[in-house]
TrEMBL record:
Protein name as annotated: Abc transporter
One MF term in the entry's GO annotations: ATP binding
Alphabetical list of Pfam families matching this protein: ABC_tran
Classification via InterPro entries: AAA+_ATPase, ABC_SmlMolc_Importer, ABC_transporter-like_ATP-bd, ABC_transporter-like_CS, P-loop_NTPase
Organism (species): Akkermansia glycaniphila
PROSITE patterns xref list: ABC_TRANSPORTER_1 (PS00211), ABC_TRANSPORTER_2 (PS50893)
GO biological process: quaternary ammonium group transport
Keywords assigned by UniProt, alphabetized: ATP-binding, Nucleotide-binding, Transport
Signal sequence coordinates: none
Length: 250
């Protein structure tokens, strides 16, 4: 279990995270959802160890990691822009991290992961020959071969379109369940958060507005912000689609 206790972070005198308390069960998918500037990326970076926290604790399976350097936490992130090495092909990108830590994944495990992510036919392609969805899967594979203890994903679906988005979503769910891997995802899209996650953390101005299952958020929004920001966005999306066809059957 990953526990965040009273996490605080201030930039230039402004509280960006103002006391976040959170428990995430092992194998759970949690989305961090909120408007621009609400502190999503800062929270992700604090968990990763890229950003130091000012106050509070990060406890993983009972071990206090609050001051543990990023590399020793054993958490790993897929960045929004994938950050693949352009001079390497897909396969070389996937196994890159194993050069320094051989044996973390066996050849068989790497093969299984490549099959799971449907990358078998794309291994020889250079990065610029890969589509957005393929790049995302290579980035996921490259991270997963290192067997992170927690997987962090920064806006993993934002650059992808409809069908590809659904396919990546399903793969993320499969990975979290097959590997019992705690997965934390930053998104600004309520639909993504609600359809992908076991629980959704809704941030507003550095504080928790609601932390619940998608079902609970839909049926029992805890406050006006959740209703306004999250549910209204979904309603607007829905109405936009339905208004397109209004009168079509008249
Ligand atoms: N390194 C930094 N130095 C100063 N201020 C920062 C720094 N990083 C983030 N901030 C500020 O902290 C606040 C939260 O930023 P953060 O990037 O966490 O928000 P976010 O919810 O991820 O936003 P977005 O959806 O736009 O990416 C913003 O006001 C931002 O300007």
């Amino acid at each position: 279990m990953l526990q965040l206790k009273n996490i605080k972070k201030t930039y230039n005198g402004k509280a960006v995270l103002n006391g976040i308390d959170l428990d995430i069960d092992t194998g759970e998918i949690v989305s961090i959802l909120g408007p621009s500037g609400s502190g999503k990326t800062t929270l992700l970076n604090v968990i990763l160890g890229l950003t130091d926290l000012d106050e509070g604790q990060i406890i993983f399976n009972g071990e206090d990691l609050s001051r543990t350097p990023m590399k020793q936490r054993g958490f790993n992130i897929v960045f929004q822009d994938y950050a693949l090495f352009p001079n390497l092909n897909a396969y070389e990108n996937i196994i890159y991290g194993l050069k320094n830590k051989p044996g973390v994944s066996t050849k068989r495990e790497v093969r299984e992961l490549i099959a799971l992510l449907g990358l078998g036919n794309h291994l020889g392609k250079t990065v610029d020959q890969l589509s957005g969805g393929q790049k995302q899967r290579v980035a996921l594979a490259r991270t997963l071969v290192m067997k992170p203890r927690v997987l962090l994903l920064d806006e993993p679906l934002s650059a992808l379109d409809g069908v590809i988005k659904e396919s990546i979503k399903e793969r993320i769910k499969t990975i979290a369940s097959d590997y019992n891997l705690t997965t934390i995802i930053v998104t600004h899209d309520p639909e993504e958060a609600l359809t992908l996650s076991d629980r959704v953390l809704i941030l507003n101005e550095g504080g928790i507005s609601q932390y619940s299952t998608p079902r609970e958020i839909i049926h029992n929004p805890h406050n006006g912000f959740v209703r306004q920001f999250i549910l209204n966005q979904l309603e607007i999306k829905r109405n936009n689609i339905f208004s397109l066809f209004e009168g079509a059957y008249a």
